[in-house]
Amino acid sequence: MKKLSFEQLSDEELAFLSQKHQAMFEELIKRYQQRVYAFIWHFCNHREVAYDLTQEVFIKTYFALDRFDHKKKFATWIFTIARHVCIDQSRKRTVAAISLEQSKLDAVLATKQHTPHQAVEKTNRAYFMQQSIAKLKPEYREVIILFYLQELSYQEIAAILKKPLGTIKSQLLRAKEALKTLLQDYKEALI
Amino acid sequence: MKTISDHQLEKIFKELPPPVRLPNNFSRAIMGRIQQQQLQETKSIHLLFYSTWSVLGCVLIGLGFWSAREMVLEGFFEYVELWWKYSSTQYAADIISVILTTVPGIPLVLWVFFFFLFITTSVLYKKLLQFQHHVTTYV
Fold first, then answer.
1. Å between B54 CA and nearest CA of chain A
2. Cα gap B131→B34, rounded to integer Å
3. Do B22 and A125 touch (CB under 8 A)?
4. Residue B71 or residue A4, greater confidence
């Protein structure tokens, strides 16, 4: 009999099997760790906090696996958990209080593999974007992150945020306008 | 001043560098934390299990002593002796009657016993089975 490898299994199948085999869940973590981390990083604007929260998201996901509806998409489910973890965290502490130096450092670290000139440009862009996204209202910030950075569809975003499709579309439109206004000051550096 | 277009915004996002990469052992670290949490959970379940059964055991021992004392006072052992000697059904009936009238709280003890049995087996079975799976498949 041909042995199935992890790569051949869908996320939903892996989630189902993870309830009995922890190694399957490790594979799921590998698939999603960077995406979840990116989502949280943009949401809370802090590297260390994002690292801890990403761990928390996966632990919560693992212990809630028996409640996962396998007919639904795993990505939608895990981002819903990540969103709740971020919201809980922002209630506990003021993420906005994070120093600008930390954000700048995060942006530098993210671009360290480029040439010096490219790196400076990319660092600035990443920094301006990060700052602008952080200044958005939380409900605008989450749709922007999910749509542009996680590249999720309207339907998936609607499922994560538990809002009607029309609301998501109009929320995204308003979020884009708000972001464009914030980015206006950095237009020269960005384009 | 011209504002940024949707297309430009999309382009900016596309060119953004991804956040700092997570270390290679990130998933391992999480699995370690999960395992640790499970062990703690199992420990607390065991503690709950043993303490509830200890309480129940004390209650049963207390009731047992009380019942034995009552049975002696009602002449239970004399009936047993007579029944052993004559093998009469009359004495056997007396023995049963003494047991039913003197052993206090038999129905209560049975209720408590089955309640504990039901709770502990139904709740713990699932948890322990899960734990067994993790131990055998992951360690």
1. 30
2. 11
3. no
4. B71
Burial B106-130 (b: 16+ CB within 10 A, else e): eeebeebeeeeeeebeeebeeeeeb
pLDDT, tens digit (0-9, with 9 covering 90-100), for A43-64: 887 888 899 999 999 999 998 9
Q: How many helices (H) and strands (E) does chain A have?
A: 10, 0
pLDDT range class, residue A143, cuts 50, 70, 90: very high
Helices (H), B16-105: 26-73, 76-86, 89-102
Contact B1 A37 (CB under 8 A): no
User: Measuring CA to CA, how many Å separate A45 from each of A71, B40, B90?
Assistant: 33, 32, 87
Q: What is the mean pLDDT of residues A4-20?
A: 82
- Environment class of residue B57 by beta-carbon count within 10 Å: exposed (0-12), middle (13-18) or buried (19+)? exposed
- Residue A126's SS3 state is helix
Does residue B134 surpass a pLDDT of 90?
no
pLDDT band at A96 (very low <50, low <70, confident <90, very high): very low
Is B1–A179 a contact, with Cβ atoms under 8 angstroms apart?
no
- Rounded distance, CA A159 to CA A13, Å? 20
Give the Cβ contact number of residue B77 at 10 Å: 12
Residue B55 contacts residue B120 (beta carbons within 8 Å)? no
Q: Is B30 exposed, middle or buried (0-12, 13-18, 19+ CB in 10 A)?
A: buried
Type of residue at A81? I
